[in-house]
Specification:
Elements lengths: L3 H11 L5 E10 L5 E8 L2 E8 L5 E5 L11 H15 L4 E9 L2 E10 L2 E3 L4 E6 L5 E5 L1 H6 L12 H5 L7 E12 L3 E11 L3 E7 L5 E10 L2 E4 L1
Parallel strand pairs: 7-10
Antiparallel strand pairs: 1-2, 2-3, 3-4, 4-9, 5-6, 6-7, 6-8, 8-9, 10-11, 11-12, 12-13, 13-14
Length: 227
């Protein structure tokens, strides 16, 4: 377990290139993940930080401000987020989704290990596109799920899995992806993108060839969403 002082040092390190003051320990939270909770002032903003009591991994960071003068594009914001994840100790993370909501860029990352994307282990990052500041982090799914797994060997190739897609559309992709399935289950799948009167993500079980999930991309005023 980390001590209160060790947790404070971690919070300072998370915001090492920014003006940090008034770090206050708010106490422990005993849930599925025991956390040490802190509040601080970062660049004149209120920030709350949850650290895992065991080891001090960042579980969540929350700050908020209005972003009015975007300067960096989505690719640059993703690079800022990737660098921050590395500084936090998260390795092998790959961008899987990005959404620009009024110049605040939300990016989802998942581990990519041996060519497989691990969707149950998502980490979400919020970036201000005016100066590249990290405004938020949410790593609860990673903390709950990230572990060594014994995955099955795919019985199909990507090309064989592609023939199992029911939608008659232009398909791209075909990478291996571990996805959440039903209640407390995971499936190793092939992920395809389809374009047919809209954009879709389609998942084919890499062992059985069954089409197990279809997600539809919805464009809204708050960026692209999945349903």
């Amino acid at each position: 377990d980390i001590t209160e002082a060790q947790g404070k040092a971690i919070v300072e390190k998370l915001f090492k290139d920014r003006k940090v003051s008034g770090i206050t320990f708010l106490g422990d939270w005993n849930s599925d993940i025991k956390t040490m909770n802190y509040q601080a002032t970062v660049d004149n903003m209120s920030a709350t930080v949850q650290l895992a009591k065991k080891g001090g991994m960042p579980i969540s960071i929350n700050t908020h401000r209005t972003v009015t003068n975007p300067y960096y594009n989505e690719e640059e914001c993703s690079k800022f987020a990737q660098d921050f994840l590395v500084a936090c100790g998260f390795e092998n993370m790959s961008q899987v989704w990005i959404c620009n909501d009024n110049s605040t860029v939300y990016i989802n990352f998942a581990p990519k290990i041996n060519g497989i994307i691990y969707y149950p282990d998502l980490i979400k990052i919020k970036v201000a596109s005016d100066n590249g500041d990290i405004l938020g982090l949410e790593a609860k799914s990673y903390a709950y799920n990230h572990t060594t797994r014994n995955l099955p060997t795919p019985a199909l190739t990507a090309e064989q899995a592609k023939t199992k897609v029911s939608m008659k559309a232009s398909l791209t992709g075909g990478r291996l992806a571990l996805i959440p399935y039903k209640t407390n289950q995971e499936l190793l799948t092939y992920e395809f993108q389809a374009s047919y009167k809209g954009n879709y993500y389609i998942y084919i079980d890499a062992v059985t060839g069954e089409e197990v999930n279809i997600l539809y991309v919805i464009s809204s005023t708050h960026g692209d969403l999945l349903m």
